[in-house]
Amino acid sequence: MNAVILDSVKIDLNIVLDKIESLSNNIKSIEKSIGFCSDSIDDLNVKLEEAVKKISDIENKMLRYEHKCNKLEKEVNILKAVINNNEQLMLSNKIEISGIPKTANENITEVVKTLAQSLKCDVQDCDIIDAFRGKAYKNMDGKIYTHLISKNIKELFVKNIKLRYKNNNPLLANEIHRNFPENKIFINDQLTSHNKKLLWFSKEVAKNYNYKYTWANMRGIFMRKGEGDQVIKIHNLETLQKMDQNKKISELWDSSSVDLK
């Protein structure tokens, strides 16, 4: 009987030993897997550090490029401003006249001379380098563009018509020709395309923020809230955007041309 018990114990012991050996093999396999995972993690960490370094290098490059782009944008805007100012200087002797109806076979030079007489400006044929009528716009006769021989004569036109309006005595078209209607005639400095757009945006801001006066001349574009208030010079589109504090016309800024910056 003891032999039977001993054999049973041996069998159980062998089973336990087999399980221990199997467990030992499993542990070795796990250790091997852990070692492989550890190596993989180390490799992954190296690759991750390399990726982080590359991303950091790319971000630094992007910051440098962004800085260069901002610098170039400022330089381009400065150059655009210089070009616009030079173009405006080239218009120093030019005016645009609105309010005079168009007639068949009209002689624009004679129209300008008659206008000059009404404003008490001594203007001869030799004082007018060029004069022509622009295209009609929204069922309105085109403006008359006049290139005068000197800045003094140009300023005399502008000064005298402003004096008429200041004295509540606007110049009317029927003073030029008795058959013309009583249209008010306006004479302004001729502006560059850029300054015309900027003036239009300025008038939109003026309408929405109750600015009484908006005007342009060879020195720039200006706004004033009312009599005696501070005069604001409009340097660029950003000046107007800052004035639009309540975002009343924010859609205009989204649709505006980059050229106005």
From TrEMBL:
Ranges of residues in domain FP protein N-terminal: 93-161
SUPFAM superfamilies for the chain: Tropomyosin
Every FP protein C-terminal domain range: 192-243
Keywords: Coiled coil
Coiled coil spans: 13-89
Name of a matching Pfam family: Baculo_FP_2nd
Protein's UniProt name: Zinc finger DNA binding protein
